[in-house]
Design a protein that fits this description.
The protein is an alpha+beta fold. It contains eight helices and seven strands.
Amino acid sequence: MKREVGGRARYEEIAQDLAKRIAQGELTEGARILGRSSLAGTYQVSPETIRRAVAILHERGIVQSVAGSGIRVMSRYAAVEYLDTLTTRNTLEEGARELRGLLKQRRQLDEKIDTALDRVLSQATGALASRHVEEITVKPAAWVVGRSLGEIRLRSWTGATAVAVTRADVDHFSPPADMLLAPGDVITVIGSEAVRARAKDILDGSTAPPDLV
């Protein structure tokens, strides 16, 4: 995934830009946003990149995307709250870089100070960082084929949130628990790197984990 200056992926930049337009009133509550293909053309990215950006906003209650109904603005307040979270994260990251520079200039300080600072900054930025998105394609031989999202207990088992299932190029956001999975389904999950890795292991497996049988 290509990342822009500052370490953010392109889909995160697009999510932030759409949130700004909603927060500033350019896109009002209830208004319909351009479809995925049109947004892809506007931002000159792939439809998959737009899907990831919309997944972030959908999960935070900023927009709602329903198959056949397009993408609609749901909450300006949620957009403002999301932007505030990003501002806080950026402030922490800038502070971290400044403190690291000062520590390098003070060579006489004990190495333990640097280690302790790393730990505090890691905990602070990790708590406020945006959750990342990953798409996992269901393989024909996967054990989850023919089982429902509720039956495989993805969230309770891995901590990952399945925010969408794409089937035949149709996005089903907030998929119901009784939705049966089929080969080729693309499941969009949100979570930390470790959580997403666990979800991929579970979804790619040919046999159900013992605790899920």
